[in-house]
Design goal:
Elements: E1 10-12, E2 19-21, H1 40-48, H2 63-78, H3 87-99, H4 115-118, H5 131-138
Antiparallel strand pairs: 1-2
Length: 151
């Protein structure tokens, strides 16, 4: 907005010193964050200079083996038994990492399954059986509703 008012809601980028109101950001912030903060322009420059991509995992897993591998990772990462790590803590850490451009976490990537060939755990508009499943089948966040791209 380029206005210099509302100092109580103003953030200064720790990299370029440009000012931003917390309510002018997209998405807006509810409060001034603790610690270092970088503006969208500086973050974009940082991200543009980094290499991103996914390397397909070389090992195939059964569902049980994948669960064990994931639990082992969770135990090592959070330094406690996997069953003791609450989902809220995992989500909090996920968003911390999303916002942190200075830290990397290596994870094993597996290809997404083509649900039209291998089915899905999500109810679809063709296979729901209850009103609750119908609600999920019609929800816009249901992953089975994403379009398949033509080759």
């Amino acid at each position: 907005c380029k206005k210099g008012d509302r100092d109580d809601a103003m953030l200064l980028c720790d990299e370029c010193d440009d000012p931003y109101h917390i309510y002018c950001l997209n998405p807006p912030l509810e409060k001034i964050p603790a610690g270092e903060w970088r503006c969208p322009s500086c973050l974009a420059k940082e991200i543009d200079n980094r290499q991103f991509g996914f390397e397909q995992a070389k090992k195939e897993y059964t569902l049980s083996q994948f669960g064990q591998m994931a639990d082992n990772f969770k135990s090592r990462y959070f330094k406690q038994p996997a069953n003791d790590v609450l989902i809220d803590r995992v989500e909090e850490e996920f968003w911390r990492l999303v916002c942190c451009v200075d830290e990397d976490v290596a994870v094993e990537y597996g290809a997404d399954l083509l649900s039209s060939e291998l089915d899905s755990g999500f109810p679809t508009q063709d296979n729901y059986k209850t009103d609750v499943e119908k609600e999920y089948a019609n929800d816009p966040w249901n992953l089975t509703k994403f379009a398949d791209l033509e080759e």
